[in-house]
Amino acid sequence: xxxxxxxxxxxxxxxxxxxxxxxxxxxxxxxxxxxxxxxxxxxxxxxxxxxxxxxxxxxxxxxxxxxxxxxxxxxxxxxxxxxxxxxxxxxxxxxxxxxxxxxxxxxxxxxxxxxxxxxxxxxxxxxxxxxxxxxxxxxxxxxxxxxxxxxxxxxxxxxxxxxxxxxxxxxxxxxxxxxxxxxxxxxxxxxxxxxxxxxxxxxxxxxxxxxxxxxxxxxxxxxxxxxxxxxxxxxxxxxxxxxxxxxxxxxxxxxxxxxxxxxxxxxxxxxxxxxxxxxxxxxxxxxxxx
Length: 290
Prior knowledge:
By secondary structure, the protein is of the alpha+beta class. Helices cover 52% and strands 17% of the residues. The chain has helices at 25-36, 97-100, 109-118, 130-141, 148-194, 201-208, 212-223, 227-245, 250-256, 262-273, 277-285, and strands spanning 7-9, 20-24, 40-42, 45-52, 55-59, 62-66, 70-74, 79-82, 89-95, 121-123. A five-stranded mixed β-sheet has the order 1-3-8-5-6, with no helix packed on it. Strands 2-9-4-7-10 form a five-stranded antiparallel β-sheet. β5 and β6 (62-66) form a beta hairpin. α5 crosses α7. The chain is rod-shaped and about 90 Å long. The mean pLDDT is 90.
């Protein structure tokens, strides 16, 4: 290897039945101390769980502060560096892709790979996952237990799914929710500015770069109503305001709000209120409708 390159380490195989290595922090430093405190590139995946103590850790040259309950997730080819602190306890779990996945058809493979690529650290504030690492430790170090390799493999996936994959999905859902909220905000702004000119759902969809189905989905998620219902509601509010508080004639109000004829406005208004515009205006001015 070129002396200018970053040192690279391969996976140690301590069991014949599984490509996985689990060490306590003490054991890890005893075997890998000189290399661990220098930046090094992994040829495998790794999880570091901090059970107690505080310190710092570098991943791809970014510094992370840790405390009890911190978990680091490192994917193959990432560069990291330990900052030695003898008071820190925990576990270093290293494993190959083959150990983690149930073949190329593994239904969770894409989720796990993506989560590893996007999240480097998580916090387990109640140390709820510590029991899983202790169970891993017990199974890994008792070679005579039947099906020990499969139990270790299952526990490993449980740790990853329970922590990393769930966190990634939660963040993904938040991002999707934020995107939907942004679209809804844009839709509401457009309705507010353009409802007099157009009440054609297709026009709003095209302006937003979405399909009618997409904007209706966003609208229902945020309000329980379709875009057409939002447009009608906004139009009805404006109609009521003008009828109640303005001095425009009913014909002028109809033209102002984009109706071709006053009779069309009357039909629309009656359908939604069971009153004619004239009746509504009279009731409002008699202070019977607020």
